[in-house]
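Support case: user asked for a sample of complex input and structure output to validate their parser. Sending the pair below.
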Amino acid sequence: MAAVSPERSAFSAIVIRDLTLAFRHRGEIANPLIFFVMVATLIPLGVTPEARQLAEIAPGIIWVMALLATLLSTETLFLSDFRDGSLEQMALSSESLWVLVLAKILVHWLISGLPLTLLSPLLGVMLSLPAEGFLTMVASLALGTAALSLIGAIGAALTVAIPRGGLLLSLIVMPLYMPVLIFGASAVQQAVDGMAVGGALAVLGALLAFSLLISPFAAAGALRVSLHG
Amino acid sequence: MTIRPLLECSRLSFERDDWPVFAGVSFVVEEGDILQITGANGAGKTTLLRMLSTTLSPSEGRILWQGRPLSECLAEYRSDCLYLGHQPGVKTALTPRENLHWLLAVHPRHADRIDHALSQVGLFRHADSPCGSLSAGQLRRVALARLYLSEARLWILDEPFTAIDRAGVGELETLMDNHAARGGAVVVTTHQPLTLSPKQLDLEPYGRCIA
Amino acid sequence: MARFPEWFHRLGAPKTFYSMTGKWLPWLAGAAAILLCVGTVWGLGFAPQDAKQGNSFRIIYIHVPAAFLALAGYYVMAVAGAVGLIWKMKLAHMVLKAAAPLGAALTFVALFTGALWGKPTWGTYWVWDARITSMLVLFFLYLGVIALHYAYSSTEAASKASAVLALVGTANIPIIYKSVDWWYTLHQPATIKLTQAPSMHPDMFKPLLVMIAGFYCFYALVLLMGTRTEILHRERRTRWVADLAKTGY
């Protein structure tokens, strides 16, 4: 193994560390994805197997499920780092905490949002999503899940010190998720209806940029509160 | 050399939800000092160390680093001090080497001597096996390996001897002594009697302290 | 860090705040009672009927002021949170603690009266109208702040964490409202579109203004009372609270 050069930045060190950790706990990455596919199976069983009706609700259903699957994986974002003292070491770094938080969020998206996005065409097929919707679905999920990871990080940082904070995390984060859901699902619906999707995707991009602006700072501040408590 | 003490704490107090943990703690740490903080369980030793590490901020009182308030030189202070808490920040799914890599990247130091540091703490053979397979004492040694790499002047060590065997305690004491001799300083809590003769600070719950 | 005039610092001390606001309470209570009584009697008894909705429109005399304050209350909470975080003012955290359940209650009143109003107007208690949906999301935002506050065992951590959440929520409220508006125009169902204020007859509008003023006084009153209770609770170990308990006031 090559020795790490001292000039390697703290950001990339955290990215590499978290990717390594994720790779060693591969099962945990798979769980939200399995959840995503399993819930997709419930819809035809619970609603209707009829392709035309499924196609009608597919854009919204896929987006709601992607949102819930992201939420499931958000709880663990800071939890193990909080428990084993790594988070404290990060907070005491001479590097700004928000930079390290951003690195963690990036990895979170790489191991949750990105696989969900790549898996979504399978769900599109299962739920008879019309062919026109696929490309937009993938694009909207790629942008949207990144925003969801960023927003979720604030909630995860606020609840990390609370025992069994997972449900609470969902309560405080879900209202903040709503704009992303609205524009994500609408983009896919518009694509299916043969309308232009540029506008909705642009808004999703704007939401992503806005979360990028706010979330690392809010999450870093919240983490300091959690460490303090 | 500067005449100013490295660290100057005056009338520190800490309240947790309006309950005083300790109050009126004053002490000075100079170059070459090893300061042992003693006190009964619950006297606030860990709280005081976490305050020195900047995780907690004092309810009252102030901390000066080389004559300047901490708020004015926070980044500089953080890069000049090394804190090892109860939970030393070692990930069990990573190997000792990988753990040191990220810890050093977050606290930039001499990373090319990781092999040296690992052999110093007797973990060279285990450098590339997951920390999950190590014993509690060995895990603690992974964290302690940072002391061999660090250029930080102030070491803040919370119960560093926990789970460490007798030989390890001796090595660690030598290390602290050498660090102090080079002009560094150590603030340490431990229930273990030290063979070094450090300065003592006795924390009494809610009381005043004798430095 | 910005400097504040002397009065700001003095008001920031819980004890000063407590004794000062004690004198305001009777006045606020009186103003709220008079305004609410006048507004209610005027609105329910004397304002003319609505041409289309008949008497059912009169619920706006509760619905609209409650909805007003539900949103304003969130901003009150967020500003208190910001002051508490930036200037480390304990009093501001106490205001936040008092403002959260009050705002949630007003949001619930707005939702509930909206549903009651919906039955005669739309023929159903619930429609996914843009305004109602936004109000529901606002209710959820309040619930999140309250739940987070109660989840922490340390008061200080609870205060700071809920302040952070209130601020994040405030940054998101305009976005949420805009998104919901946009979503609604996309799915606009064929229902009666309600337009109120602009086309409102002045005789209907004046009692509404009185009610809004009354609700503001009521809000301020309850907020102060809640904050005062919180002050006593958090300062219960201080000498002045002990003296207060002995002398009675």
